[in-house]
Structures are given as C-alpha cells and as structure tokens.
Amino acid sequence: MACQQSRYHSFSSASRLQPRPSGVTIDESFLTEDKSTQNRKLLQKRRTLTGQFSMGGHLSPWPTYTSGQTILQNRKPCSDDYRKRVGSCQQHPFHTAKPRYLEELENYLRKELLLLDLGTDSTQELRLQPYREIFEFFIEDFKTYKPLLSSIKNAYEGMLAHQREKIRALEPLKAKLVTVNEDCNERILAMRAEEKYEISLLKKEKMNLLKLIDKKNEEKISLQSEVTKLRKNLAEEYLHYLSERDARKILIADLNELRYQREDMSLAQSPGIWGEDPVKLTLALTMTRQDLTRTQMELNTMKANFGDVVPRRDFEMQEKTNKHLQEQEIQRTSTPRPDWTKCKGEGSRQGPRSCLHVGPDSSSLSPHADVVAGGPDRWQMLAEGKNSDQLVDVLLEEIGSGLLREKDFFPGLGYGEAIPAFLRFDGLVENKKPSKKDVVNLLKDAWKERLAEEQKETFPDFFFNFLEHRFGPSDAMAWAYTIFENIKIFHSNEVMSQFYAVLMGKRSENVYVTQKEIVAQLLKEMTNADSQNEGLLTMEQFNTVLKSTFPLKTEEQIQELMEAGGWHLSSSNADLLNYRSLFMEDEEGQSEPFVQKLWEQYMDEKDEYLRQLKQELGIELHEEVTLPKLRGGLMTIDPSLDKQTVNTYMSQAFQLPESEMPEEGDEKEEAVVEILQTALERLQVIDIRRVGPREPEPAS
Residue 206: pLDDT above 90? Predict the structure, then answer.
C-alpha cells in the first residue's frame, strides 16, 4: 500500500469567536438587507466577539505534532527513508487536542442552531445565517485564503439567490397546478357520473332487447306451429280434393249411365220395337217416371254434397303452386353434393354392394367393372376434371347406356297429343343399338342437312323426315326411338345434349346456329391475324383478336378464354399458340375447353341479361307484365336494340306472330299481358343477348 503523508497548516488570527449569549435572537431582517449593511453588522459582531475568543493574538494550529516536529516535504511516498519515518511515526503516536478557536466556533454554532430550533417561525433561510457568520469569521481571520473563500461564498450566495428567484417564479405555477388538479378531479368525477348514467341506460336497453328477442322467439315458435298446422290442413284438403275428384268421376259416370238408359228408353218407345201396345207404353212411361224421380233425387243429393267444391282449374293451380313450393323447399334445404350411398347394391362387405369406391375426394371415385365398361382405368379418364355432381351424370350415363344395350325393343308411346310427332307409335320398336360415335355422326349429318338449305318445317318433323330419307320409312321409327333414348341419356355430350334441347323445344335452333357462327367467325379472325399462315399466334395477337371479336366481354372473361386456350398470366409473350387446335373435336363430338368456355360464357351472359331485365321491370315473377312495359325494360338495359330484334323478342315472350304484334303506342298494347316468369322462360329458349353496352346511370 502506498503511504500517505499528513500536512499541517498553521492558522494565524488575532481573534476568536464568543458564543452568543443566552436569549440573543437572530435578526431575520438580515436576509432582506443589502450586502454592505450585512457586512457592517457582521464586522461589528466580529469585533465584539474577537476579544472574547482571542488567545494571545494568533490562531492555534490543529492537529499538530510535538515541538520540534517539522513538516515533511519533498519525500517520495515509497522510499526507504519515507518508510523509516512513517514507522517512527507509528511507534510514537501523537496525542493532540482540538484548538480552542475551533471549539469556540463549534460551541457558537451549536448555540445559534438551538436558538433557531426554539423559534416557531424559523425557516431554512434563517438556519443558514449562523453558517454564514462562521464562514465570514473564517474569511476575515485567514487573510491568506480570503480571496478564495470569498469567491466560494459569493458563488454559493449567487446560486441561492438564483434558486430563490426560481422558487418565487414557480409559486404561481404551483397555485395554477393545484387549480388544474382540482378541475381535473371535478371533470373525472363528472365523467364517471356520466359513464354511470350511460351504463344504466345501456343496461336498460339490453333488458329491452332481451325482452324483444324473447318476444321474437315466441313469435317464431308461434309461426312454426302455424306453418305446421297449415301443412296439416293442406294435406287434409289435398286428401279431401282427391276424394271429391273421385266422387265427381263416379257422379259423371252415373249421369252418363242415366243418359244412356234414357236413350235406351227413347229407342224402346219407337213404333218399330214396341208397336202401338198401350199396356207396354204405359209400363214404359211408369218406369221412365220412376227413373226420372230417382235421377232427380240423386242430382239434388249431388248438388247438396258437392255444391261447395272448387273448380278443377283452381284445384290444379293450387296443386301446381304447392308442388313448386315443395321443390323450392327441397332445393333450399338440400345440399348439392350427391349422396353416393344411392349407388350401393347387395354383396358388399359393409352390407349392400357398392357400385363406387369413394376415396378422399370426388376425383378418386372408382366404379366396379360391372357398372362402367373398361374398369377403373376408363373411369379415371371419364372422371378427370369433373366435380361430384358431374360425376353423377357420368355414372348415370354409363348405367343408362348399359341398360340401353341390354334392350332389344322399345315400347311405343302411343298417339297422344303430348307425345312428339316423331315418336307416335303403338307397339314394339326395335333397338338398333348404335355406338355413341355413330349417334354423334348421325346428329352431325342431320345438322349439316338442316343448315344446308332453308327448312320451313319444324325441327321434329325435319328430324323424322331425315331418318326416313336415311334409313327408309320402315326403319325410320326404330331409329327415331333409338336416337331419342340415346340423346336423352348422354347429358355430358355436347352434340347430344344440344340436339335433345332443340328437339324437345327447350332451346331454339337459332342458339345452336348462332354459336356455330360465332366460333367460325372467331376462327376466321385468328386466321387473318396469322399473316404467315403457320397456325400460330402470340399471346398479344390472341388477346387482340378476342377483344375485337367480343367487344362487350369484360377483362375477366377475356382472361378466362385465354386461360382456357392454354395461356396464363405467367406465360411469356414470346410463346406461340396453335390456335387451330382450340377448335378441334374428338370422335364423340366433344370440343376443346376453349369452345366449352365460350358456350358457358354465352349461357351466363344470357342469364345475366334476363336478370337485369327482371330487375329493371321491378315486379315479382308471378305478376303480369304488359307488352309496352317489357319493351321499355329491354330498351333500357340494351339501348342498341333495333326494332326488328325487339319485335322478335316480344313475339317470343307473348307467343304472338310478328305480323299480329300491335304497333308501339297502340291502345291494344296494354291489353297484351303475360306472367313474367312465363315470359322469361320463353325468352330463355331463344337466342337473346346484349347488342350494345348499357348506358351508365347519371351521377347523383
């Protein structure tokens, strides 16, 4: 360890302090007097006290050494000489006492502080006064250090004065802070009271809403019970109407029987049978009167029993409405996902033998070999890219085709008015059992002949005539039944499904013709864009052709067509597309996804067009619409329509020949009415589509 050396300083002074006598108080005005006055008073007090504390005219040093001890100077702390001297100092410790001047100063300070503590109004500023006096005594007695001590004292006094000014400046802020604190507390209390009031209001509102919910639940239960009761009443009424219908049929039969008996009696009264025998005539008259009386009684009974029976027309209308509501309820409550358990038969390990093996998803459905010809491999090919609902159609087609191959004859449907003309036959008809490819080729040939020249006959009549020319009159009916049964089964085949829709009147043949014309026009535009005649187009050229051919399609629809053609957003413009492959068909008449997407968009656009028309009319489906109102709705949603096209639409919607259509503004227009749903269903059959863009609605 490093050694230290004590240094001693001698203090010279000619005076000492005398403690303040008991009972002497400090003048608090000292703090407020100027500095010269303070110095003068302090000098007087010092002169007064100097004589009392003086010890021979000088200050005694402390701590000090024994006589003869000198101050060590210029000695290195760790030298041998220093260690020796320090060791000598440790062997001879010094016993010194405090100087008398120091003791007197301490006693003076202690008494002054005691006097200040006894006062009731002593402050921190007054407690500094004794320390100031002691420090002034030091400054005056130690002449050598007076400048340094004076600068120290002045620095502290200046800082105290500065702090005192800051305190005075902060006093108003403190009062303002107290005021702000009180205001904030009052505002907090007011906000709490307001929140409490709002909470109470919200609780009341909550209780009211709960009561309202309970009331609505009770109303719901009441309505449900009422619906159940109405359904029960409807079932009872339905049974009642059935019994009434049967009774009415019996009554009509009895009336017919009575009429026949009356005719027989009339014939019996002829001279050729009975002659002129009065006895027989009298007996016949008696029997006739008895029959008349009995008939009159039965007629009165029937009137009494069936006087309140509703007309059959009203009953059938109510029955149709009920059936429609039941179908809506079934569609609302049922799920579109098919029930695959319907395909199960007997012989399965779990119970009935399943015709399908259902995997984790609908694409892994695999039928048994006895259901789909070709086994799992062919089923995977058929099921590729189809959802579960489409798979059901494919499965039903396979099952139906299997059953169709097993039939050798078809039973004739008769000659009823509801039977199509090309199927009116009584007896057994031979099943020609053609392949699917043969049926498709036959239908294509029929379309070619239909489009080759203008046909004035209806499409069903044309179809039967085509079969007569192709197979002869003897086999035409057999081929008609065979083709009809095939196209009725294969819904997924485009050629068959479209031919069936046109043949049964569900779709106008103009729809098929227009679609073929659109595809041909698109192929022509792509061919014109192919300047090198290589059968290739870039993505930019393909996009340009689509937009120019279909100016009314949206960007999303154009993008869908491009993706169906094999291009996506990530494709490069430098890639080339073989556009001719987009219009090819397989051996069964199935077109490529691009043409299928065109057909899907056409049907979606037609549905959207009719939806906008219904929305523009602003009436319900079961309400009636007049001819001018429907005409105005069409012109509103499609201002580019020409008069001829509008008349064609009107003629189809109201089932009127165009020659009998009343002119616009004619009084007869208002008399032409039709149910809106029926009119829309008729428009759905024909080729109806947007001609031009709809005018934007004016800004509000």
Answer: yes
What's the token pair of residue 230? 């109405």
Are the C-beta atoms of 642 and 677 separated by less than 8 Å? no
Distance CA 374, CA 83 (A): 117
- What distance in Å separates the CA atoms of residue 282 and residue 196, rounded to the nearest whole number? 107
Q: Report the distance separating Cα 394 and Cα 485, nearest Å.
A: 16
Contact at 8 Å (CB) between 139 and 146? yes
DSSP 304-368: HHHTTPPPHHHHHHHHHHHHHHHHHHHHHHS-SS--GGGGB-TTBTTBSPBSEE--SSGGG-EE-
329 vs 685 pLDDT, higher one: 685
The 10s digit of each residue's pLDDT in 116-153 is: 765 545 567 777 888 888 888 888 888 888 898 889 98
For 533, phi and psi rounded to 5 degrees?
A: 55, 40
* pLDDT tens, position by position, 270-309: 555 445 567 777 788 888 888 888 888 888 888 777 777 7
pLDDT attached to residue 96 = 58
Is the pLDDT at 24 greater than 60? The verdict is no
Count CB neighbours of 422 within 10 A: 24
Residue 201, pLDDT > 90, answer yes
Q: Which two tokens stand for residue 157?
A: 């006094």
- Mean pLDDT over residues 355-374, rounded? 48
Average pLDDT of the residues in 486-498: 87
**Among 303, 290, 305, which residue's Cα sits nearest to residue 258?**
290
| φ and ψ of 158, to 5 deg | -60, -40
Beta strand ranges found along 469-607 (DSSP E): 536-538, 576-578
The residues facing 409 across adjacent strands are 430
What is the Cα–Cα distance from 615 to 638, expressed in whole angstroms?
13
Q: Where are the alpha helices (DSSP H) in 119-145?
A: 124-141
Q: If we measure between CA atoms, which residue out of 565, 593, 561 comes closest to residue 578?
A: 565
**Do residues 407 and 431 make contact, with C-beta atoms less than 8 angstroms apart?**
yes
Q: Does residue 684 register a pLDDT over 60? A: yes
Question: How buried is residue 463: exposed, middle or buried, by Cβ count under 10 Å (0-12/13-18/19+)?
Answer: buried
Residue 380 near residue 365, CB atoms below 8 Å: no
For residues 561 and 542, is the Cβ–Cβ distance under 8 A?
Answer: no
According to the 3-state scheme, what is the secondary structure of 453-490? CCCCCCHHHHHHHHHHHHHCHHHHHHHHHHHHHHHHHC
Q: Is the pLDDT reported for residue 78 higher than 50?
A: no
Band of pLDDT at residue 212, cut at 50, 70 and 90:
very high
Residue type, 112: E
Per-residue CA distances from 116 to 31, 42, 108, 122, 506 (Å): 15, 18, 12, 6, 119
Q: Which element (helix H / strand E) includes 112?
A: helix 100-118
| Global pTM value | 0.48
String of DSSP letters for 152-189: HHHHHHHHHHHHHHHHHHHHHHHHHHHHHHHHHHHHHH
